[in-house]
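Appendix B. Extra example for self-study. Work through it before the problem class; the solution is given directly after the inputs so you can check yourself.
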Amino acid sequence: MSIFDELEGIHAEALQALETAASSAALDAWYTQYLGRKGAVTLQTRSIGKLSQEERPEFGKRINEIKQQLEAAYAAQSQALKAAELEAALMSDTIDITLPGRPVNPGHLHLTTQTLRQIYDIFGRMGFEVYEAPDVELETYNFDLLNIPDYHPARDMWDTFWIDQKQPAPDGRLLLRTHTSPGQMRVMRERYPEPIRVILPGKCYRYEQITARSEHQFYQVEGLAVGKHITMTDLIGTLTQFVNLFYGPGHKMRVRSSYFPFTEPSIEVDMDCILCGGAGCRVCKYTGWLEIAGAGMVHPVVLKNGGYDPDEWSGFAFGPGVERPAMMKYGISDIRLFYGNDLRFAQQF
Amino acid sequence: MKIPLSWIQDYVNVKDVPVQELRKRLDLAGLEVDSITAIGYPEAELPWDPEKIITAEVIAVRPHPDADRLVLADVNYGGAAPEIVVTGAPSLYEYRGSSDLHLKVAFAWEGAELYDGHVQGWTKRRLKKTEIRGIASRAMVGSEKELGLAEEQTDIIYLPGDTPVGVPLVEILGDYILDFDIKGPFGHLQSVFGIAREIAALLNRPLSPQPLHAAARLGLAATGEPGFVSLEIQDPDLCPRYTAMMIRDLAIGVSPLWMQLRLRRAGMRSINNIVDITNYVMLELGQPLHAFDYADLRALPGEETPAIIVRRAREGEQMQTLDGEVRTCDEEMLLITDGGGPVAIGGVMGGLDSEVAPETRNVLLEAASFNFINIRRTSQTLKLFTESAGRFGKRVDSELALAAAARAAELMAALAGGTVDVVAGDLYPGKPEPVILTYSPDRADRILGVVIPRDEQKRILAALDFRSEATNAGSGWQIAVPSYRLDVTRPVDLVEEVARVWGYDHFPHTLIDEPVPPLRRNLQLEGEDRIRDILIRLGLDEVITYSLIDPADEDRLNPNPGQALDLPGEPVALRNYLSLERSLLRRTLLPGALRTAWSNLRFQESIAIFEIGHIYYRVGNPKPEQAETGIAEPRRLLMLLSGPRQDRWQEPTDRRPVDYFDLKGIVEALLRNLGLETASQWTRVSHPAYHPGRSGAVEIAGRALGVIGEIHPLVREVFDLPAQPVVVLDWDLDLLLALAQEAGRQKKAQNISIYAPVHEDLALVVAEATPALAVQRAIIEAGYPLVIQALLFDIYRGPQAGEGKKSLAFALTYQSPSKSLDERDIEKLRQRIVKQLARKLNAVLRSA
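Solution. Structure tokens for the complete assembly:
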């Protein structure tokens, strides 16, 4: 057997042995056995002395080739083995990915706050800014100056909480505002002669039995625009924008005549019923329509009381409500959920 | 207000208009229909099958051969031969043995669905063929209950004699009841005729004025001295018109079916024919009427003719009203009096003594006009809310009084056999001037933003009875307002009339075509929203509680009555309230938060909430001229935490209940966000509602923000909260935001050092009473500007610290903006810190 044959034999044997080296330890042993300092291949270099001068370069070259081949095979095998071992280790470290995550509990804004913010945002884009007025209000601001004199039938629209005043104050009777409209008077008197575009939000109060449909405390939000050329079509257009942005596009709207003492003409704006899509159901009283807002052109008496000459100025006002739009949007059937503050309700939003 | 469509049909033809169409038209024009109730029609609760429920005629009644209390009725239903019906109807029994009858009835065939007349409530049943004592019966004669017309089972229905035989009953008695929700003071819409008038204008159809023309039909003459009564109005400001008519020889009895049905469908009960007629005409025309028993009216002393004197009541004057109550009047109330005293509270309710009774023969019929504001005042003061007061309170046309009286008198003659005196009493001191308005179509265009054709505007105004007088030069039209349109007083009111009839649906949609007014920031709202956003990020839920609280809740916050509860100003209470629990305006948000905690801790183990809201207290008297209410409404911020620190999870979590430091961590994060973290002063104070050892007051820049701490265990118990710490912050939000704004104005960016920081721990022994914050701030100050952080990481109490002492260990970070710090720099710095702390706080470096 020639030295060459012996070398080839070792080569073949080494390759075969490598295939069976299935662990890092076996692989290390293999390396020592063949490529280590006293490894079979390494030892073959010593045989070079037994060869003729002519054969030596060829043998040397061949040994190097084999060494390189084996090194490469070893590296590949080693990498594969490491990958397999890592894979095995990772697989033994498996978690149940369906287990719940570590709890993180961010807070929730009150649904009223969220709704108001949406409304501010929508009207803010049309140049309306937020103006706030007090909860405890003078009777004159809540009623008389808004064209609702004492004992006038129009007052029947508001059941009122009156403040207990120790000293009788016939001109300064106080009440909890029944609507946000006194803010109209306050902002007009404050801003005259500027044109006005404001949103008036706030808590309002009514002396009403508390039911699923009515609360003694609720929020209102109303808009007021006063200018030189403000028209009914502007009002309708502005409310159309609101419906598109708040409820989403594609809703049908209708405008009805209505009555409010502080607007003339007065209208009511309806939208096709969210629940039945206009087919008629219990929520829309089988009309297919839901009220979106009461509105109208500011009554000349109100403009005048606010300091604006009705021959020169005109304006519109509208009140979309706060809880009602949210109730319609989310299918909430009980208004008491808003200020009862059951967090199981609040945390849904 | 319920109005049967069949009644409207008397004045304007709506037969060919589908009821839903009509409703739509009315809704759009501002006459809101709240609901429609069908009777007999397919959409009704009990539809009357037009094939099986028809009109018929009982032509003979024979005894039942085998049952004493039953009879056999031969009923002509329009077929070849009469149908034999076995019936126990008591009124038919009376006809036993009679033939040649013409009793018109409601007839139902087997298979028809009807209500069961013999059980309470509404149970439907299908009529079956039966055999009663040997006689087969496949039909029946219906009662009101069985047809759903009355709640009580009574006799069978007798239809008017001229009713055709064999037609579906629904064509005779079917109806739609429109329930109107008319908002506002519109007297002219408080009647069937008034609604019919609107419908005629909206549909552009003729209106029958027949009910208004009874005076002419009676040949009535009106005078101040009609003979049968002497009339006097002493207070014409409250009673602009008083009319009286005399109807003699009446027979009090029941009203005919048609009138009973109309009254019932309009929501009124039938009493007797006279009272029913006054109610009927009130419903028909909107004019409340009152019938006095003429025999009860007294003359003045020395006179023979009964007197009616309309005057203000004397203070404390009493009378007994129809409902049996004795009413005490004040000087602003108007009385109708006779020669002997009060007989009615004008326009509100009649007196018991002169009530129409079964034996009444002669009636004095009053139709008057009253000041609507005064009626409302009287009604509200006496808490006496009647149909009459309700209508007068919405203003009734004074021109209507005599016409309505004549209409009622005409009906009394027809239905109660009376004779009407052709002379009527009429005092009319307050006859109003005709109202003429100048209407400018141009101005209408300007307000509406749309050009409505001029002839269309004219047509609409004319259809609504607004007569155009000769058009003057210029663009204005002179418009005469009909007397019943008391709501129309300004040209803009006419603009609305034109717009609503023309239809808002035809209006284009535009946006304001003007420059945006000067814009202002709303710092209040911006500030609130900033805090809200920070706090929800920190895991708190926002709540909004009621402004009205239980006055006792203020006391509940104070378990030791000796101590003063530090609430601001004078409390503001309600004069009228729904319940005592909601009768006081809150001066603190705390009770609302504690109650919210209570209600939620029943359902979940922990709670973290905040509220931003106003409190209310009196600071002075209202000054209407300055628009001041005298009530302060500052804003507060309240936070509340309670329950386990972390949720349960699959691995152990921190389940200890939250305490002061959890809340303080949130507050520190908030203050950092607002740029206020370095400025705060924390002092322990005792506040009655809080744990004395675990609560404190916080100041920034020398101004008191409020309290933070654990709620006093006794308060916790009073509010029924579980036995775990409840930690609360209750601060002045206006102040916090003002401080934050100021800090924001002064905020400047800090450069970030590129040099390596050096970390070192330092433990200092101080007296137990020395606050950790003071030590930490002193370190920062002493090491300024090189100590950039001093983090307290350990507190040690024990022998190595010494009696009454504690050791505070801080992790310090040194960093220079301009160079790398070496060991010498650090050593110098450390010495400076130790020296200054020794001087300021008696601190000693703890030997390593």
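Self-check: Chain B has a mean pLDDT of 93. If your reasoning did not lead you there, revisit section 3.
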